[in-house]
Design the sequence.
């Protein structure tokens, strides 16, 4: 099976996005761990693993088509953050960028009548709905619970509970 050069480029670009996302989440996890947000650190470590799993899905898809995947160098992520809330807002923006890129690939697959890649991308479309919803819900916790130390401690516990779901998703 052949896919267009345009689709190959888009999939390789997505590998780069996923690698950068994994790296960003790893930096966020590290900051959380140093700052004392143990639950949040576990959540972001699991998110980092999940993004790497997404990257590997695309690598395997390309390789199974006989196309060498391009493994990118990643950008150095930010290492200092203002607050747990700011990290979650940054994570949501990153997920929204990933969603836009996936939607663009879906459009390419439709234009190319590339049904196999379209079917492959459906999983990512559904995954991104879950990812964006997860981060939007977590950000809402600051409005619902507050931003004082006790509230942030509660939000850290919520993130800890979500870490187990992210870890389970990473094995899909």
Sequence:
């Amino acid at each position: 099976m052949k896919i267009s050069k345009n689709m190959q480029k888009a999939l390789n670009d997505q590998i780069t996005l996923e690698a950068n996302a994994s790296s960003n989440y790893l930096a966020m996890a590290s900051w959380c761990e140093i700052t004392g947000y143990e639950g949040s650190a576990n959540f972001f470590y699991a998110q980092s693993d999940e993004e790497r799993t997404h990257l590997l899905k695309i690598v395997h898809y390309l390789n199974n088509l006989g196309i060498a995947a391009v493994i990118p160098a990643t950008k150095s992520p930010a290492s200092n953050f203002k607050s747990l809330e700011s990290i979650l807002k940054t994570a949501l923006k990153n997920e929204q960028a990933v969603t836009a890129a996936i939607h663009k690939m879906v459009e390419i697959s439709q234009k190319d009548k590339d049904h196999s890649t379209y079917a492959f991308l459906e999983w990512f479309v559904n995954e991104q709905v879950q990812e964006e919803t997860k981060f939007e819900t977590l950000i809402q916790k600051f409005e619902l619970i507050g931003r004082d130390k006790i509230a942030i401690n509660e939000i850290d516990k919520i993130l800890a509970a979500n870490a187990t779901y992210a870890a389970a998703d990473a094995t899909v």
Helices lie at 5-35, 38-64, 84-111, 115-145, 149-170.
